[in-house]
Design goal:
Layout (H helix, E strand, L loop, with lengths): L1 H28 L18 H31 L8 H25 L13 H27 L2 H7 L3 H13 L5 H23 L5 H24 L7 H22 L2 H6 L7 H27 L2 H22 L6 H30 L5 H8 L1
Length: 378
């Protein structure tokens, strides 16, 4: 009797394991890693005005950091006054700055306890090898992002990289065989429509870069893959995002060096007229600082609001960034071009709302249906 019951419990545990892995992967694909839908801090004891002020400051910090980083990277990658054609080197330097900052903060936390809260970092080659698959995807993500920004305007940048949500759903189906609700598919259809309309309008205005658009699509794919591999690799670094950031950037620096050599960027850098310019290195280092800071302020915004609010804030930030780019570069855009941006932003916002609504329903009724149980058992 006891043996039979033990076998039944063991079988149930084995059947739950694939379900658990599927749930984790699904959370990665839908961008809800570690998301409870609620702010992580308990702010009930704080006055409303103080909470509102904190949230406003954190959201503003996220907006300023993210928008500044995009404009600064555009300057470094495609400025007529700079004329630096080494996008891989720019990305490599930003990874180097992030690695040094992580190590510096770790050393400060060790030498002066209580000064800063940061995990202890020691380079372990076994951990570096475990993180390597994610690092390859990470390299693709940041490289394609920068290459897209190099070849397209800042105003079109968000549309060019707008297919991340679509790839999330596609990978959910291919890897999990997970069907998607009609409403989620509808929002993806709006995003795809906005993307194609934006490409069409860029072509009509004579500003379309097919190369930059392809890099944007590849960047979107890598962002989706990065979410999957991040969840998979986190146990190797004890669940620490900062340790993962450190190993990711160290691996990236090592892999970028032969890539720069093969593409001839080291020679181009040696021939660069402003290589000894203090202004150039200040801007490069500032770009690295913004690259490091964006990870921190993103986590800070999620902490003080919620993952859902963070996605909404990101969409609103993209809208503001597009308007600022059009004004700053004194561009004139057609009604359909603006419509394409609104379709992408509206579709992304609608998808965020739909996913939040579906997750809430799942939490209220977490038990799977009978046919879903059978499928899981198989």
């Amino acid at each position: 009797m006891h043996s039979g019951r033990g076998m039944t419990q063991s079988s149930a545990t084995m059947n739950r394991a694939p379900l658990k892995r599927s749930r984790i992967l699904r959370m990665a694909l839908t961008g809800t890693l570690g998301a409870s839908g609620e702010a992580e801090i308990d702010s009930r004891d704080k006055p409303f005005l103080l909470r509102a002020l904190q949230i406003a400051l954190v959201v503003s910090l996220y907006w300023v950091t993210s928008i500044s980083m995009v404009f600064l990277n555009k300057y470094l990658l495609d400025s007529p006054s700079l004329q630096l054609d080494t996008p891989i080197f720019v990305t490599f330097y930003q990874c180097l700055v992030t690695s040094l900052l992580c190590k510096g903060l770790s050393t400060l936390a060790t030498c002066c306890p209580g000064t800063v809260d940061f995990p202890t970092l020691h380079l372990d080659l076994r951990v570096a090898r475990s993180v390597l698959p994610l690092s390859v995807v990470f390299i693709g993500m940041i490289t394609f992002n920068n290459l897209c920004l190099k070849y397209v305007g800042v105003a079109f940048y968000n549309v060019g990289r707008s297919l991340t949500t679509v790839f999330n759903l596609l990978l959910s189906y291919l890897l999990l065989k997970q069907t998607t609700s009609f409403y989620a598919l509808l929002t993806c259809g709006i995003i795809i429509g906005g993307f194609w309309l934006g490409v069409d309008q860029e072509g009509a205005e004579g500003t379309l870069s097919l190369t930059g658009t392809i890099f944007g699509v590849l960047a979107s794919l890598c962002v989706s893959l990065n979410a999957i591999y991040t969840k998979k690799v986190l146990p190797a670094v004890d669940g620490s995002i900062w340790r993962l950031t450190f190993y990711n950037n160290v691996n990236a620096c090592m892999l970028f060096l032969p890539l720069m050599l093969m593409l001839g960027e080291l020679q181009a850098l040696l021939n660069f007229a402003q290589l000894d310019s203090a202004h150039f290195w200040v801007m490069m280092t500032l770009g690295g600082l913004f690259g490091f800071a964006i990870g921190y302020v993103t986590g800070l915004q999620i902490k003080f609001t919620s993952p859902l609010t963070h996605n909404v804030s990101g969409t609103a930030k993209a809208c503001a960034q597009t308007v600022l780019a059009v004004l700053y570069y004194e561009e004139t855009k057609s009604f359909l071009w603006w419509a394409s941006n609104l379709m992408v932003l509206g579709g992304s916002s609608a998808y965020t709302w739909v996913r939040g609504w579906e997750m809430k329903k799942t939490q209220e009724d977490p038990s799977p249906k009978e046919d879903e149980k059978s499928a899981m058992g198989v």
